[in-house]
Structure formats: C-alpha cells, structure tokens
C-alpha cells in the first residue's frame, strides 16, 4: 500500500486540543471514473472547515480529512476524464460529501475543477475557489444579477461582511458587473480592505442600516448579499431591501421572519456552494466553467486574489493556527497554506 501525508482527525475537539487536527499517513488513492488525482500544492481554510470540525461525540475509525480549497497539479486522470490531463495546474473547492484536500494527493470529480489562473502562484490560487464559487453563484445565479455592466447602472448592492473571504471576492465581482457596492465593515482595517477590493462605500453592521444608507443617498437597495449572521441582520435587511428586491444569504442560523418581506414582494434565496456536487446535479459542470471564467478574469487583471496571509508548510500545527484565527471571526481576506 502506497501512503501519503495528510492532516485529519479521529475525534471532534476544540481547536486548542492538539488532537483536534493530527499529522497522519493514510493510503494514497487511485483515480477512477471522472476523478482526477491531484498533487496538492496549497490549500486554504474557510469557516466550513471549523464548522465540520466543531466538537461532537462522533469518533472516526478512518481519519476524516478536511479542506475545501485546493490548488495543485493533476497526477492521474480516471478513464472517463475528458477535461484535464496529467501535468495540468488546477484549482477547486471540492465536495463536502468526500474527503477534503488537506493531503498530499486528493481525488476530485473533474466537473467541479478549473484551470488554475496562470498569473497566480498556488497559494494565491488556493485562496479563491470556495469563496469565488459562492459569490459568483449568489450574485449571478441565485440573485439573477446581470453580468452586463450597462444593465446595472445606478443599481446598488449591500454586501454584509465585505472584508471576509466571500465578501472580498463578492465585492470585486459585483464591481466587475457594474454595480455600486456598499459593503459592511466595522474596523479601520476591514474598512480599508473592503475599499481596496473595490467597495464604493462602507457602513457599520453594528448600527441600523437604513439611516446609514440614507446618508449615502439610498432609501433602499435592490440587492443584499448576507455573508454573516442572517438572523441577527434580518430586520435591518428587511427594512433596507427595495420593493421587489432580492436578498441572498449563505449563513443558516435560526428562524427568519419571512412575513416581513411580504409587502415588498421581496425574494429571499439561499446559496450553498456544495449543492451541485452533493446532489450530483445535471449542471455540475457549471462549476468547471465558472472557475475557468474566473481564471480568465484574474489573468486579464479584472479581479485579483483575496489572499491575505500565507503559512508553510501544510501540517497540523499550521492548520490548527489557521482554524484558530478563523474562529475569531475577524479574519480579513483568505489564509492559505502551501507545501507539504
């Protein structure tokens, strides 16, 4: 049996516990069907990592490997693959129903893999897939915002949590589509980061939205993208959304008063980036195409990586550090870890 390095867990423990994430040797997988075997060069962390890892009674006999942001090189292709060949540089977010990418080699369905942006190194590329897929699907598929700037003239979007991982790329994509972007941020460093990504204005999410929007000249906004604490911000969002506007959230955290949207005929929609892979939807290959489109946008300098911190090497200690930072809720941009 050929083995490989990985970082995983047997028990679901607080991140302060050194056994919460362990350096392991596990069996190296083999590519079959439409799977690629990818040599992992860099990974990034997201809130989903620590949410899956959060303390619970369950014990894993076979180690559970986390990690849903990978950049690497195709090592092998399954017999049914048509999109990639060995040696191709790729990036992707993966499939939450399978083992994650915190391992030397990783199996992934080619339909949710994109070509790595040529102008980025592996850590810069690994910072992008999960957040980019989330932001792109939320804006252009769930909220049905046009990607034609001419159609978005004089239209504004409010992005709650504009300096976080998803927010950083959502701001850029919304600006690329021609929207006026109002981001929420509460600290000088997060305000500065949101503006660096292209936000036209920022407001404070710890204060009422409508009075702050009015100071910017907006009574309401047609689009709101919520990337943090949906239940907490619900009343503010219901007040700020325009009649017939659309709210999209990625955070499921409690009952929501849908009746508050009735008089405005407002739409509410969820975005969950793993839906296509989880349910093997017929349009799963859209994520391949989407990541390729974003790679082209990156290489043509229309948008940029959201990497804010890089660690090396990929091992349990650095992953525990990254999880600890994320759990503070104060991380700006993305943390990536490179090299085994």
Automatic annotation (TrEMBL):
**By its UniProt entry, which Gene3D superfamilies does this protein fall under?**
Medium-chain alcohol dehydrogenases, catalytic domain, NAD(P)-binding Rossmann-like Domain
Keywords (A to Z) from UniProt: Acetylation, Cytoplasm, Metal-binding, NADP, Oxidoreductase, RNA-binding, Zinc
Q: Which organism is it from?
A: Paenibacillus aestuarii
Give one Pfam family: ADH_zinc_N
Q: What is this protein called?
A: Zinc-type alcohol dehydrogenase-like protein
Say where the protein is mainly found: cytoplasm
The record's subcellular location field reads:
Cytoplasm
Assembly notes: Homotetramer.
NADP as UniProt keyword: yes
Q: Which residues form the Enoyl reductase (ER) domain?
A: 19-337
Of which family is this protein a member? Belongs to the zinc-containing alcohol dehydrogenase family. Quinone oxidoreductase subfamily.
Kindly list the residue ranges recorded as spanning the membrane.
none
Give the highest taxon in the source lineage.
Bacteria
Q: InterPro entries in the record, alphabetically?
A: ADH-like_C, ADH-like_N, ADH_Zn_typ-1, ER, GroES-like_sf, NAD(P)-bd_dom_sf, Quin_OxRdtase/zeta-crystal_CS, Zinc-ADH_QOR/CCCR
The organism's taxonomy opens as:
Bacteria, Bacillati, Bacillota, Bacilli, Bacillales
